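Study this:
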Amino acid sequence: MSDSHQSDDRIFLHGLSTECIIGFIDWERRVKQTVILDIELPVDCRRAAIRDEVSDTLDYSRSSPSTGCASPSTSPAPSATRVTSAW
């Protein structure tokens, strides 16, 4: 831990996929594309570890509204785009 107020805890979400309309070119805006996300979320799990209360853990619906619409995928679609993000 680099700072007494920060935790080195991380939650990894791998292979979350969603279909969406993205892009800049007109044809991209007309066709749904599959996007697969790999996300690394820094979290502070110290309170949850000490108190052992589920209410102290990460609530995905509060961390990002868009996270709630993604669904796990075991194999990427042939035209899928993989996006990797770390905060």
